[in-house]
């Protein structure tokens, strides 16, 4: 057994210490004293396993070195490898690739469902079809991310869970609030966006107890109202174009969230959530939004929808 001092540039708080101790324990390495000021962690164990621990931390995005010269400039390279591996289906990124597949197939399925309902006039949504298509994109985007999160949910640290709850709550609330706000007005957009955002945020933040739940609830509450407000305020100012930009921006946020989860849970055994449940949830969510768009109460100032 040997002792080595590991310099970690990002060692700033107890959350980082928790991650480092967890990674070290997987390789039978003990973490002794931790000095946040000097950015040092004392590792004890088999020397080869200590080096493996340092390599894993570097792969996760930490700058770990035994000679106090942290590695720099590799963040973009790691992110590029993550994107390339996910798109190409490499074994190391099989969970991430499956998440991408779920997004693609969910989106295609929801597009087909929307087109079918519109062409057969099963619901009066033809004049709002653009916004319903945006709903299909947003729901598929969230479903892909949620499946990926489910695969590693049991391994989240406190900070991971707070970020996931807040991000999903805000994303869900904002996107749905913006869609319903564009078709039904400020009141319905806010109500539906807030409810959806708070439910999703609270559920996925619950791994961190009350604090995680509150983060998700607050994220959903604020974003639901903001999404609806944005649509109503921009109704005569290139709203459709801005919503397209907005949804693409949130797609980037979901990629970043998945990357964070990949980095923070590297080496953990992933679960395989049931795909049937995912697709059923996507279809039911989209049908509910179509019903609200078609039959929900409409506020003042939405004559642009043609109703």
Describe the structure.
- By secondary structure, this protein is an alpha+beta fold.
- It folds into two domains: 2-72, Alpha-Beta Plaits, CATH 3.30.70.100; 79-305, no CATH class.
- The chain is 68% helix and 7% strand.
- It has a four-stranded antiparallel sheet, covered by helices on one side.
- A hairpin with a 4-residue loop joins β2 and β3 (40-45).
- The longest helix has 27 residues, at 158-184.
- The N and C termini lie far apart (75 Å).
- Mean pLDDT is 86; it is low at 303-307.
Largest sheet: 4 strands, antiparallel
Instruction: Identify the overall geometry.
Output: elongated
Beta-strand portion reads 5-15%
Number of strands: 4
The domain tally reads: 2
Give the rounded overall mean pLDDT.
Answer: 86
Can you tell me the residue ranges where pLDDT is under 50 for at least 5 consecutive residues? 303-307
Q: What gyration radius follows from the Cα positions, in whole Å?
A: 22 Å
Q: Which secondary-structure class do the elements indicate?
A: alpha+beta
Question: Residue share in helices?
Answer: 55-70%
Give me the number of helical elements.
Answer: 10
End-to-end distance, in Å? Answer: 75 Å
In order across it, which strands form the biggest sheet? Answer: 2-3-1-4
Order of helices and strands: EHEEHEHHHHHHHH
